[in-house]
Amino acid sequence: MCFVWMAIADVSGQGMVALAGAVRGQPQAEVNLGLHYLTGSIPGTFRKWKLPWPQNCQRGNYWLEKAGNSGSAAAQAALAQAYMDGNMGLPKDGVKACTYLKQVMDNRQAEKEIKAEAGYNLYQLYKDGDGVPANPQLAARFCGLAADYGNGYAAFVLAKSYEKGDLVNADYGRAYLYYKKAVDNGCGDAAGDLARLKDQLGMK
Predict the structure, then answer these.
(1) What is the C-alpha to C-alpha distance for residues 119 and 115, in angstroms, rounded to an integer?
(2) What is the pLDDT of residue 68?
(3) 123 near 115, Cβ under 8 Å?
(4) For the chain, N or C: smaller number of CB within 10 Å?
(5) What does the pLDDT read at residue 20?
(6) Dist CA 156 CA 191 (whole Å)
(7) Local structure of 41: helix, strand or coil
(8) Nearest-CA neighbor of 61 among 94, 38, 41?
């Protein structure tokens, strides 16, 4: 029983810390508080432990927007994900998801990993026309940006596109370069295609 109360105290304390920090204008605290409100829960020290927090999507959106307007890429990415999935209380909205994803891409403070994921999400939205008009050119552009920021799977997808001539004009040289970039960034699926294309092009 003591263990349970310690867990409750830990999680409740995190909620109060986020609330206090958000009121003081600390962007990371605003992000945490916004996520608490959107998800209706707070992760504890023991990751599998979560306790309820009053879910309030309007408050969650408010705190995340506030942090995002202060330049928090984490807040912009969280809002983008919420609008992409439509499973955190906010409605699924491709247009709003694109808006926040583009904010991440334009954010000079955003880490490469966050930009890589944002670029790949933009690629998917524009390729599939998921809530926004399908646009192969934009899809290819954002897939390329995601690859440039280190997303190995984005590089793999773009390599396939250059080899097959979908989304972009066929270009085996570029296909080879993106297969190599995919492998260099940890995409094991690209290794076989890289070797095959290298053999086709007669490269040593």
Answers:
(1) 6
(2) 94
(3) no
(4) C
(5) 54
(6) 10
(7) strand
(8) 38
